């Protein structure tokens, strides 16, 4: 039996009656954009993230862009962020009018290397966006210390890390704001696009509420230039059903990851080529990424065996054509560049069976030996 990279149909089958009821409830109420489902979901997510406020928006990308704008970031400002992330992290900075300044990553976690922050600091630096990549929390102690020392704001990119913890506290509760994504493949995925900003400061949350609704608090009066970026009721209703499963799902992901690591270590792979979990961190394994030489041949060999994998990500943000001339050029990011050549994500989801994990681990070990 082929093993898909993701299996969202299996997830639907497990929750079908409850999801169907939730969708029907929204249709019967006849209110589709913002409303009681979104309000309830915002309260539930604020509590999940250990933050005081949460504001539903149209996507994780918008959550990042609106957070930057809510914190007053604009033209000429520089934003420090990881050079190794999904494109949206950089795209949102440019959309807010600011300049992304990339920082290389730590080789064990693939998250921004906080010890490199000082060398990228300029008089124009305003914000740091740490990305909790693949579900592993960034080194928040070091990042928050640096931010305080230099009066920088922090926006956590939690798109891949909902439910992850750093020193016992949920990610998203450390910065001035945090961006969540409910893109269907994320650990908490909707039936379409969706996102959220969580924040502890009521003024930041209020600002996001204004920006997501064309700067309007009362109908037809527009105080600031915002945009249309709202979460809809169908998404919120679906996500509320799934949120109840999130901690169980994340535990199942962690369990599958432990099994992979045990099997792959036994098959001779080195610990440094497998995902790390630093002390004090709770990884939620949005992706389980291994490093293999001759990666593309290994992926092709797994594909022949019916096992789907993904390369996340084949290049650094500094190498993206869209950012040429936008970000300062001529810099090198040796750790991220090396990772981009070797990284490979294996299928990992709560529904993955032990038997599937075993056959994937066997096939991978074989392919690494004879790609
Ligand atoms: C998915 C993702 C985003 C963007 O979220 P969308 O909801 O797809 O706009 C931002 N940052 C990271 C790291 C992501 O993985």
Verbal overview:
- The protein has 371 residues and is α/β, with parallel strands linked by helices.
- It folds into two domains: 8-243, 3-Layer(aba) Sandwich (Aspartate Aminotransferase, domain 2); 246-369, Aspartate Aminotransferase, domain 1.
- Helices cover 38% and strands 13% of the residues.
- The chain is built from eleven helices and twelve strands.
- It has helices at 8-29, 36-48, 60-70, 88-95, 140-149, 202-211, 233-243, 246-266, 295-304, 334-342, 354-369, and strands at residues 53-57, 78-82, 99-103, 125-129, 153-157, 165-166, 169-170, 177-181, 195-199, 281-282, 288-291, 343-346.
- The strands form three sheets. It has a seven-stranded mixed β-sheet with strand order 1-9-8-5-4-2-3, sandwiched between helices. A three-stranded antiparallel β-sheet has the order 7-6-10, with no helix packed on it. Strands 11-12 form a two-stranded antiparallel sheet.
- Helix 5 links the parallel strand 4 (125-129) and strand 5 (153-157).
- Helix 3 crosses helix 6 (202-211).
- The protein is globular.
- Pyridoxal-5'-phosphate binds next to helix 3 and helix 4.
- Residues 59-61, 85-86, 88-89, 131, 157, 159-160, 181, 183, 193, 195 line the site of pyridoxal-5'-phosphate (PLP).
């Amino acid at each position: 039996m082929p093993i898909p990279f993701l299996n969202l149909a299996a997830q639907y089958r497990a929750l079908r009656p409850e999801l169907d009821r939730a969708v029907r409830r929204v249709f019967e109420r006849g209110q589709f954009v913002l409303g009681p489902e979104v309000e309830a979901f915002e309260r539930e997510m604020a509590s999940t993230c250990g933050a005081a406020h949460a504001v539903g928006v149209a996507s994780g990308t918008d959550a990042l862009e609106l957070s930057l704008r809510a914190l007053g970031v604009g033209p000429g400002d520089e934003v420090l962020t990881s050079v190794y992330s999904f494109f949206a992290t950089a795209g949102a900075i440019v959309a807010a009018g600011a300049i992304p300044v990339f920082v290389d990553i730590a080789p064990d976690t693939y998250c921004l290397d906080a010890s490199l922050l000082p060398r990228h600091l300029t008089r124009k630096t305003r914000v740091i966006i740490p990305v909790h990549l693949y579900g592993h929390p960034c080194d928040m102690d070091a990042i928050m210390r640096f931010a305080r020392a230099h009066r920088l704001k922090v926006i956590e990119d939690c798109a891949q890390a909902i439910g992850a913890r750093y020193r016992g506290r949920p990610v998203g509760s450390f910065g001035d704001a945090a961006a969540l994504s409910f893109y269907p493949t994320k650990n908490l995925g909707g039936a379409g696009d969706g996102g959220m900003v969580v924040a502890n400061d009521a003024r930041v949350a209020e600002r996001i509420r204004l920006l997501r609704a064309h700067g309007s608090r009362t109908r037809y009066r527009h105080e600031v230039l915002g945009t249309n970026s709202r979460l809809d009721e169908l998404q919120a209703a679906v996500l509320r059903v799934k949120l109840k499963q999130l901690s169980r799902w994340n535990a199942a992901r962690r369990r599958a990851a432990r099994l992979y690591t045990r099997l792959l270590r036994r098959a001779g792979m080195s610990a440094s080529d497998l995902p790390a979990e630093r002390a004090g961190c709770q990884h939620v394994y949005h992706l389980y990424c291994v490093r293999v030489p001759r990666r593309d041949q290994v992926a092709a060999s797994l594909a022949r065996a019916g096992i789907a994998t993904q390369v996340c990500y084949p290049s650094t943000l500094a190498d993206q054509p869209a950012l040429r001339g936008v970000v300062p050029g001529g810099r090198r990011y040796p750790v991220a560049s090396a990772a981009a050549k070797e990284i490979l994500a294996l299928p990992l989801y709560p529904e993955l069976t032990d038997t599937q994990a075993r056959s994937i681990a066997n096939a991978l070990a074989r392919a690494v030996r004879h790609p």
